[in-house]
Amino acid sequence: MAPSLETCRAVEPKKQNKNQKPTMKTITTVLAALALGATLSIAEDKPAAPAKDGAAPAKEGAKPDAPKGEKPKRDPADVFKKLDTNGDGKISLDEFKAGPAGKKDPAKAEEFFKKKDKDGDGFLSLEEFSAEGGKKANK
Predict the structure, then answer these.
(1) Which of 137, 91, 80 is nearest to 114 (CA)?
(2) How big is the CA angle at 127 (ends 124 and 131), to the nearest 5 degrees?
(3) What tens digit of pLDDT does each residue of 43-96 get?
(4) pTM summary value
(5) Cα gap 7→72, rounded to integer Å
(6) Is residue 119, in this structure, part of any structural domain at all?
(7) Strand pairing partners for 124?
């Protein structure tokens, strides 16, 4: 018995026309490629550490409790160590002027230094440097 014409057509592979809609296999392949590309592009980015109140993440070394728009306060002992270039435990006027304040405006730096130098010996100790007096009131 010979196979019927209907049976032969079912076994024969279908030819696609140029105007035929994409098959499910093609759509699945394209979507898988897009998902893989998106996954790889996201995986390269390092997520930022989330802030407590939804604000932008703080810079490294900055204190998280600094008010918005203001510079975070630095530890006076750390600043003192950086300014004390010869390591004698006190800051001279020359060392102070060599720092950022002296480079910006030497006259104001000298005036600030003299206000901080409570005992008048020409040097700032850590206690004098850390004291809260002599700062600008309107900044």
Answers:
(1) 91
(2) 95
(3) 666 656 665 555 555 544 444 555 566 667 778 888 888 888 898 989 998 998
(4) 0.44
(5) 82
(6) yes
(7) 91
